[in-house]
């Protein structure tokens, strides 16, 4: 991505994300404390509140984009940010449900510069705690007992189902020789766009916004999610491990058909043809054979993707989705300061490094 533009209120985005991380924190911890032992402890480890030995820790809790959006969307509806706290907690619980399961399915041993839950506590606990967080998300909303809570819950459950669909698509792509760009965008719209779309609208729904305004914020979040995932896909191949917390060539190691890969294959030309030959051979290898690859082999694939134009196409797609997301805000009558925060957050998503 290009360096951050001078127009972004970096301090404002930092404050917005900090609020998304801290304002819902007490309710998030209270929700996790409902879990039966040892799931409460395992979840606390995942969230970075304790270390592997159970001692208090101040771990990296992630970027907090989703809860930040939930609080901001409440303000878009003219409500206080606190109105969006149950929505912020709910989307954060669903997001972390997906991370727990994704790490296990992908075999990822590191997240946020620490061993993943399945690595420390075992696969069974990763599955159970993920399931429990998903159930908690619905409880948190429905306990409000309002019509707005029921509307918010419908949006959250639809987003969760789409997220799971996207993960299933993503896994199926790993063992296919070819995936077209439209299929990849559909998968990423489900896997990432759906929950960000829910996050951008759930606070407004809790704040009493009508469906027209909520749908416009949903569109903003959906396209922002596609921009977010496009950036993730670039970082998944070329990101600095010190920033991302993942291994070099992370997505190539997992044989992911991410946007740079799919766009490169679709571009045609010698680099695309050679890449296609290598990936077709990779798809036939066992996991054990693939793990024997050395760094040079992954570097070769990354270079071919870049030569075929996959990296530049994906970066351009991130910028395009960013523009569509910002235009969607025109469908909502909101305070100018709140609109500016939505715009700055979109800029941050496209220009981030981790």
TrEMBL record:
<protein>
    <submittedName>
        <fullName>Polyprenyl synthetase family protein</fullName>
    </submittedName>
</protein>
<keyword id="KW-0808">Transferase</keyword>
<dbReference type="InterPro" id="IPR000092">
    <property type="entry name" value="Polyprenyl_synt"/>
</dbReference>
<dbReference type="InterPro" id="IPR008949">
    <property type="entry name" value="Isoprenoid_synthase_dom_sf"/>
</dbReference>
<dbReference type="GO" id="GO:0008299">
    <property type="term" value="P:isoprenoid biosynthetic process"/>
</dbReference>
<dbReference type="GO" id="GO:0004659">
    <property type="term" value="F:prenyltransferase activity"/>
</dbReference>
<keyword id="KW-0479">Metal-binding</keyword>
<dbReference type="GO" id="GO:0046872">
    <property type="term" value="F:metal ion binding"/>
</dbReference>
<dbReference type="Pfam" id="PF00348">
    <property type="entry name" value="polyprenyl_synt"/>
</dbReference>
<keyword id="KW-0460">Magnesium</keyword>
<comment type="similarity">
    <text>Belongs to the FPP/GGPP synthase family.</text>
</comment>
<dbReference type="InterPro" id="IPR033749">
    <property type="entry name" value="Polyprenyl_synt_CS"/>
</dbReference>
